[in-house]
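User: Could you check the structure of this?
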Amino acid sequence: MLLSALRVEAQEKIAIQPQKSYIVGQSIHLGEKIPHINLPTYYAYAPIKSKRQQREYNRLVRDVKKTLPLAIEIRSIIIETYELLQKMPDEKAKKKHLKELEKGLKKQYTPKMKKLTLRQGKLLIKLVDRECNQNAYELVRLFMGSFKAVFYNSFASLFGASLKKSYDPTGDDWMIEQVVVRVLNGQL
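Assistant: Sure, the predicted structure tokens are below.
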């Protein structure tokens, strides 16, 4: 009887990942086709020196990432609503549409707004001003009337906020602007 030992070795599986490929445009320069790639602008700012400033910056990045999409949604809703109101025949139809819109927006956005911290709420007010080029008070006044604008601003003031707060990218809000630009550019 012949005994033989079989030796079995497992081969290591190597995962081959596909190479990333890019479609590259061409330019003609001096009669030669030259490939060209449009790269996004990279924004670089001075480094943060202290740990306390770094914590504040990280907190601001987190807050901007949470509130900027809301501000952009608000801008698109305002533009869409304004265009729709321009097409409506009379004031009665406009008021009816605005009441329905207000109910729908409250139902959709109240849970999201309740999850925001006070700091994020104040930031959202500024980012709405940045995105819409009008402060939140004026937007509420235009679409919902002066009474509701005063009411909502009074309610906000109970928490130390103001719907009349404006956005100043070169003044007090310079750091917010840096973070927003980097988030929109995909750097953060």
